[in-house]
Design brief:
The complex is a heterodimer of chains A (251) and B (101). Chain A is an all-alpha fold. Chain A has one domain. Chain A has seven helices and no strands. In chain A, helix 2 crosses helix 3 and helix 2 packs across helix 4. The radius of gyration of chain A is 22 Å and the shape is globular. The termini of chain A are far apart. Chain B is mostly helical and 101 residues long. Chain B has one domain. The chains are: A mainly alpha (251), B mainly alpha (101). At the A-B interface, helix 3, helix 6 and helix 7 of A face helix 2 and helix 3 of B. Chain A: It is a multi-pass membrane protein. Chain A: Keywords: ATP synthesis, Cell membrane, CF(0), Hydrogen ion transport, Ion transport, Membrane, Transmembrane, Transmembrane helix, Transport.
């Protein structure tokens, strides 16, 4: 699929294809949806099976489940404060969904659903609606003072207010573009260097030796991508918490 | 238990006053990655603010029939918002326990 007529085709990996035969085709059930389902099932399985033992000294699964739980809990409470505990399930769900999407996408033959802007923007838009609703519910009309900092001269209002509004509206856009671009860039790089391996491998006698170079790059890239996959999920969760902090406290 | 928590808080405040917690400043902020990562984040902030500004301008122009004036205005506003986003990215912001402002 990657090498067709000796050209590099790095983008066809993001194409959606229906799965599950005729049923999937009729309802538009693509492999992206399939991987979302798998990710959801894996998350539930990790938490349910991991916490089944409820041992005082945790086993491996229980330890990982507890570690992730406490990691996200510390993140949310550290950013939002004590009242942030009620948002913990939301941030935890987001974090796990993005993390598993990124990580599953690194497996061979798997699809990265976070590499589609529709998915990441959908997630970011949910965050945006939530922070706006929370801010409006907690502060009412006082929320709109967020767009005009105290102490600024009044004649600057026509400049400051549009800028602040655009800055506020750009939050979901930057949140989604960051995740989407990181995932796309990583997978395109992997595909390009993998194609180099195949193309250089066919160079006769010296082929295998030259092809070892992009292969080495790809091995390093996979390690780097694991880091990016975790880091982007973390950034998504922490930015959500920062926005929630702004919504709860205003400024 | 509540007493313990109060003690921890006071200890932390005292340590922060004496400047004994250098880690306090970076705690809770975004992870400071490589220079490439920082550059990429700043770029994303500028581009997204520009996208929002231009989209707002075009939509308002379509609605009010004032093409291209609001588009031009909101292009500038989007650029300013992008610079503001980058400025906010680099101003240190601590966790929920910050008291300034």
């Amino acid at each position: 699929m990657a090498v067709e007529g000796k050209t590099i085709d790095a983008l066809s990996q993001f194409e959606l294809t229906p799965v599950l035969g005729a049923v999937g085709r009729s309802i538009g059930f693509s492999q992206s949806n399939m991987h979302m389902l798998v990710a959801g099932l894996l998350i539930v399985a990790l938490l349910m099976v991991g916490m089944r033992a409820r041992a005082v000294v945790p086993g491996r699964l229980q330890a990982s489940a507890e570690t992730i739980y406490e990691f996200v809990q510390n993140l949310v409470v550290g950013q939002v404060g004590e009242e942030g505990k009620r948002f913990f399930p939301f941030v935890f769900t987001l974090f796990m969904f993005v993390l598993f999407g990124n990580m599953l996408g690194l497996l061979p033959y798997a699809f990265t659903y976070t590499s589609h802007i529709a998915v990441t923007f959908g997630l970011a838009f949910i965050v945006f609606v939530l922070i706006t609703v929370v801010a409006l519910a907690r502060h009412g009309m006082h929320f709109f003072s967020y767009f005009f900092p105290q102490g600024a001269p009044l004649w600057l209002a026509p400049i400051i207010i549009p800028v602040e509004v655009v800055s506020y509206l750009s939050r979901p856009v930057s949140l989604s573009i960051r995740l989407f671009a990181n995932m796309v860039a990583g997978h395109v790089m992997l595909k390009v260097f993998a194609t180099f391996v195949v193309l250089l491998g066919g160079l006769g006698v010296i082929g295998p030796f030259v092809a070892a170079l992009p292969l080495a790059v790809n091995i390093a890239l996979v390690g780097f991508e694991v880091l990016v996959a975790f880091l982007q999920a973390y950034v998504f969760a922490i930015l959500t918490s920062i926005y929630l902090h702004d919504a709860v406290h205003l400024h | 238990m509540a007493e313990d928590n109060g003690f921890e808080k006071r200890l932390k405040q005292a340590r922060a006053r004496q400047g004994l917690d250098p880690a306090q400043k970076t705690r809770g902020g975004l992870p400071s990655g490589s220079t490439w990562g920082v550059g990429f984040r700043a770029g994303v902030e500028v581009v997204s603010a520009l996208i929002v500004g231009v989209a707002l301008g075009v939509i308002l122009d379509r609605w009010l029939g004032t093409w291209p004036w609001l588009f031009l205005v909101f292009f500038v506003v989007g650029s300013v918002a992008g610079v503001l986003n980058v400025y906010r990215l680099f101003t240190p912001r601590s966790g929920a326990d910050r008291t300034r402002r």
